[in-house]
Amino acid sequence: MENTLFDHSPIIDRPPLRWPGGARVAFYVGLNVEHFLIDRPSTSIWPGTAELVPDALNYGWRDYGLRVGIWRTIESLDRHGIRASVLLNSAVAERYPKVIEAGLSRDWAWLAHGKTNSILQTSMSRDEERAFLTEIVDTIAAATGTRPRGWMGPGLTETFNTPELLAELGLGYVLDWTNDDQPYRLNIPGMLSVPYSVELNDLLLFTGRGISGPEFVRMVKDQYEQLHADAEHSGRVMALALHPFVIGQPFRHKYLDQALEYLAAQPDIWLTTSDEIAEVYQEVR
């Protein structure tokens, strides 16, 4: 089967991309704010208990994020003047009002991120998925006062129908296809792909590869430095993917703060949101 969702486009063949204020790199934090069901396996730090019901070890690890970890993360974001692009499970909007209140007071960008990270829509029919996505978008809109403009599937998952169904609901971009350093148009009218990262991603770095806090800071700096160099003639996007139950652990907090302090001090960076990146790209391309 050939891919028809987007066309191949070497980055060296594109016209220059300009960001506001002459910035070389558009930077955003993709903050994963997720709800998990207690009777289904999901993201785990220890696979030995992942199939148990209840799985106290892994469920408790995940639950730490919205009880404690997110509040530490917010401290660092506030300190360095960074608005989050929140990848929001709609179940969070229904169950965790303090998180929604915190985001509204900070003018976060709200993206739809499924209902819960314990449920994927990958096996749904087109009509089932349409109803499922409609419920997610409507729930987030009711809780935040704005309809989400972007989407990232739980586990970066889609069906072949997802982007078109999202376009029907008025969304304008997805983060699921992590194959570029610039936004690009999908072969669906009005729909973009905006860069996200499965490499510069705390969940995979800390729990998958076992890196240390200082290594994390070094990787953030290396990512920015290379993208800055690449962007001499055409702008780039840098996404930092965070999960409060990972980066919000006490022994990691200072390293997130160091990374954000470094980025916020760069003269050629645009501290922004994925919504604003998509909006600017739609205007100039």
Number of strands: 9
Q: What is the CATH topology descriptor?
A: TIM Barrel
CATH architecture descriptor: Alpha-Beta Barrel
Number of helices: 10
Would you list the SSEs in sequence order as H and E?
EHEHHEHEHEEEHHEHHEH
Domain count: 1
Q: Terminal Cα separation, in Å?
A: 29 Å
Shape field: globular
Oligomer: single chain
Question: Which structural category fits the helices and strands?
Answer: alpha/beta
CATH superfamily placement: Glycoside hydrolase/deacetylase
Query: Helicity, in percent?
Result: 40-55%
What ranges have pLDDT less than 50 throughout 5 or more consecutive residues?
none
Explain this structure.
There is one protein chain. With 285 residues, the protein is α/β, with parallel strands linked by helices. It has one domain: Glycoside hydrolase/deacetylase (TIM Barrel, Alpha-Beta Barrel), CATH 3.20.20.370. It is 42% helix and 13% strand. The chain is built from ten helices and nine strands. Strands 1, 2, 3, 8 and 9 form a five-stranded parallel sheet that branches. A four-stranded mixed sheet has the order 4-5-7-6, sandwiched between helices. A hairpin with a 6-residue loop joins strand 6 and strand 7. Helix 1 runs parallel beside helix 9 and helix 7 runs parallel beside helix 9. The chain starts with 24 loop residues before the first strand and ends with a helix. The model has no long low-confidence stretch (mean pLDDT 97).
